[in-house]
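Need the bound structure for cobalt (II) ion, inputs here:
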Amino acid sequence: MDERNRGRVTKDGIRIYEVSDFAGMRKAGHLAAQILDEIAEYVEPGVTTARLDEIITNKVEAAGAKSATIGYKGYQHASCISVNHVVCHGIPGGKIPGRSNDVILDQDIINIDVTVIVDGWYGDTSRMYVAGTPKPFAERLIQVTHDALMKGIEAVKPGNTFGDIGFAIQQFVEAERMSVVRDFCGHGLGRVFHAPPNVLHYGRPGTGATLEEGMIFTIEPMVNLGRPETRILPDDWTAITRDKKLSAQFEHSVGVTAEGVEIFTLSPAGLFHPTKPA
Ligand code: MF3
Ligand code: CO
Ligand code: CO
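Answer from helper R.:
Posting the output first, comments after.
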């Protein structure tokens, strides 16, 4: 990378990281992804979201890392666990919307989102899990959401724009007659959790900031089977679909390279999707 670009912040407020910084992101991303690999065996009917978060908390600690979400804006857990029509930011141990407790049931679809800090670098990733045997339309939602993230990642290369990423995702999802959530977006990250830019999962080609080598951000599309509108529950965190239809999400932390993209949160065990081997 051009030395003069190091540590630079673009006119859009986006930091350009050094090649050596990517090594830090690689380590943080690897741990976050490894924890999501290791939680897979515990996600089954009967487990509580509180128990899953407890296991994740222990794994973060055992790795000598820190959770980015504990203490973040008052949030108190090492993960967000979002079940069925919860779009994101489901609180472990909280009542699953529509239920009286936090017990996972057969046919539930579950997003688990973990962000860890390793040597000051943030690794942020989430993926979808299924309990028991989900309904075919739920499986299809998960597949489309995963593929939408990968379409977005394919649009990452120097010279493309953030609008190109959003367009790739939106076009793919809407062709499948599903909808892209507008109320939450991806974000720059690195030595901080949430930084510019807002990475929208919809948009028009050629719009928005231009991607440059050294940028680091998440792409984390939320896709709904019904309408895109969301609502925040009185706990001030849990976001649900207004129409109570299912929602899914996948998230990777990525960096822009000279050739295109590096994914920092690839699953070491190859369990990003599907989360459980057949
Ligand atoms: N990991 C989430 C993201 O993808 C943020 C969670 S913030 C929390 O940006 F406080 F809800 F945990
Ligand atoms: Co994120
Ligand atoms: Co996340």
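Comments: The chain has a mean pLDDT of 97. The chain has four helices and 15 strands.
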